[in-house]
Structures are given as structure tokens and as C-alpha cells.
Amino acid sequence: MSEQNSETQDPTKKRTIRSFVVRGGRMTEGQQKNYDANWAVYGLNLEDGRIDYSEVFGRVSDVVLEVGFGMGASLVEMAKSAPEKDFIGIEVHPPGVAKLMMLAKEEGVTNLRVYCDDAIEVMAQCLPQNTASAFQLFFPDPWHKKKHNKRRIVQPLFAQQVSNVLRVGGHFHMATDWQPYAEHMMEVMEEQVNYQNAAGKGEYHPRPEWRPLTKFEQRGERLGHGVWDLIYTCTSNTNG
């Protein structure tokens, strides 16, 4: 998945979290062609401001948000498997966005849109408040070194920002293959007063059948690596 969370470079900025570190963002000629060919159908622009989900998708539905979808295969699979729902992916890595749109077109998926931008800005400026049914964050950068732990995207402020775009009863679903990060996620989320652990206080959630196994995850399983899912229900909003 894309790199998640770094600090802003300008200390005068109010916002202190970014949802990514851009690495290797240049596209090949073929990726650029796919990007340009499919953006008009699947792309959403930060500068267009606040959207209305029913206008974007032409219907009222449950909307699932995902940050950091990598190359997009699992998100396309989820959208294809749940045509009654609508999905919005947010990813800053242009080759991944190009790949997702290409896969969606090949699979005939119409219930999917994408932002190629910083998730923090998209959440603040574009997404309807207190509306989404689910927010997914799968395999974000764990920032293994202790001195870099503060760069992890799952922090109290981010949890609050997620709750602002979720409806009451919506779910914040995280997954990681790095146990210290799973423990960090648990520590952060158990302290949030507007979330409740869907598996019970201090418990990890079994992997839901609808979350596709990525090639990365399948490889990890073969090597004996664990994967931890955490699902928290939003119980209240502070901005609605």
C-alpha cells in the first residue's frame, strides 16, 4: 500500500498530519494513457470541493471509503462483489490510481470513484460529513522504527477525522500485518470516546469474508505472518 502519514513541512500549517509520503509517483507512458482515458469516468477532483454521494453515483446507497488502496485490485474486487454499494478510493500514487481505473473498466465496475490526492485534504474539503457507511485502511505503512512511530496515520486526530465522515453506526476497518502497529491501532482506538470495538473491548476482529486476500497477504500467510483486523463502530459525531 502507499506510504501513510508524514508531518507537514511548514510548521505554521494548522494541519499536522498528511496521509502519505509520495514515493515513485512518476507514471510510464502506458499508465499515463490509462489515467487520461479513464479519469473522466472514475476521477474526482479535490478542487471541486464538497460532493454529494447521490449526485456522484446517481442513487442513494451505502458508501464505502478506502484510503491507500495501492494498485487497486482488492478495491475493484470489493466494488464488483457488492454492486448495491458505492466505493470511493483515495490514493496519492498515480500509477496505482491508473491501475485501479483500468481494472475497473476491464471488470465493468461502475460503482467506484477515485481521488488522486491527500486523504486528509479530501476528507476535510470534499467528503460529506456524517454520511459514509464504512472507512477502510488496509496495510498502511507501519513505520517500524520507534522514532518514526509518530508518522503512523492511525493517531487520535485521524480517528476523529474519520468519525467526521462516518455516519453513526458506520465502521472504521483497519488491517495490518505488523503486530506492533496492530497494538498501536488498538491503543489509539480504545481511547476514542466516539467509537466502540465491534469485536469487544481489546479484541481483534476475525477477517471478514468480504475483505479480499491480497497477493501480499497471501504471501505473508505462506510465510507464517499474522494479519490483524480491527473494526470500530462510530457511536457519535462531533460535527453533525
From TrEMBL:
<protein>
    <recommendedName>
        <fullName>tRNA (guanine-N(7)-)-methyltransferase</fullName>
        <ecNumber>2.1.1.33</ecNumber>
    </recommendedName>
</protein>
<comment type="similarity">
    <text>Belongs to the class I-like SAM-binding methyltransferase superfamily. TrmB family.</text>
</comment>
<feature type="binding site">
    <location>
        <position position="66"/>
    </location>
    <ligand>
        <name>S-adenosyl-L-methionine</name>
    </ligand>
</feature>
<comment type="pathway">
    <text>tRNA modification; N(7)-methylguanine-tRNA biosynthesis.</text>
</comment>
<feature type="binding site">
    <location>
        <position position="141"/>
    </location>
    <ligand>
        <name>S-adenosyl-L-methionine</name>
    </ligand>
</feature>
<feature type="binding site">
    <location>
        <position position="118"/>
    </location>
    <ligand>
        <name>S-adenosyl-L-methionine</name>
    </ligand>
</feature>
<feature type="binding site">
    <location>
        <position position="177"/>
    </location>
    <ligand>
        <name>substrate</name>
    </ligand>
</feature>
<dbReference type="InterPro" id="IPR055361">
    <property type="entry name" value="tRNA_methyltr_TrmB_bact"/>
</dbReference>
<keyword id="KW-0489">Methyltransferase</keyword>
<keyword id="KW-0819">tRNA processing</keyword>
<dbReference type="InterPro" id="IPR003358">
    <property type="entry name" value="tRNA_(Gua-N-7)_MeTrfase_Trmb"/>
</dbReference>
<keyword id="KW-0949">S-adenosyl-L-methionine</keyword>
<feature type="binding site">
    <location>
        <position position="145"/>
    </location>
    <ligand>
        <name>substrate</name>
    </ligand>
</feature>
<dbReference type="InterPro" id="IPR029063">
    <property type="entry name" value="SAM-dependent_MTases_sf"/>
</dbReference>
<comment type="function">
    <text>Catalyzes the formation of N(7)-methylguanine at position 46 (m7G46) in tRNA.</text>
</comment>
<dbReference type="Pfam" id="PF02390">
    <property type="entry name" value="Methyltransf_4"/>
</dbReference>
<keyword id="KW-0808">Transferase</keyword>
<feature type="binding site">
    <location>
        <position position="91"/>
    </location>
    <ligand>
        <name>S-adenosyl-L-methionine</name>
    </ligand>
</feature>
<feature type="binding site">
    <location>
        <begin position="214"/>
        <end position="217"/>
    </location>
    <ligand>
        <name>substrate</name>
    </ligand>
</feature>
<dbReference type="GO" id="GO:0008176">
    <property type="term" value="F:tRNA (guanine(46)-N7)-methyltransferase activity"/>
</dbReference>
<feature type="region of interest" description="Interaction with RNA">
    <location>
        <begin position="147"/>
        <end position="152"/>
    </location>
</feature>
